[in-house]
Write a structure and sequence with these properties.
About 55% of the residues lie in helices and about 0% in strands. The chain is mainly α and about 70 residues long. The chain has a domain of about 35 residues. Keywords: Membrane, Transmembrane, Transmembrane helix.
């Protein structure tokens, strides 16, 4: 079976070459045309928080607000 496949490829070299070049061109076109939004956003979620805590140090405010 593999022998027949290889013989066919060697017999029809031009068709094989044209199909290979076509597949490569189509792949490059598809890669360029792909929607860039399809890639997921891997950045961590960030939140800006303003906390008023009069009379306390910044470290203590951070410890009380950030409770991981």
């Amino acid at each position: 079976m593999i022998r027949n496949l290889l013989e066919g490829v060697m017999r029809f070299r031009v068709v094989t070459l044209a199909a290979s070049v076509g597949a490569i061109v189509f792949g490059i076109w598809a890669w360029i045309d792909i929607r860039k939004e399809a890639y997921s956003d891997i950045a961590d979620a960030q939140v800006r928080l303003i906390a008023k805590f009069p009379g306390k140090a910044a470290v203590e405010v951070e410890e009380r607000v950030d409770s991981d």
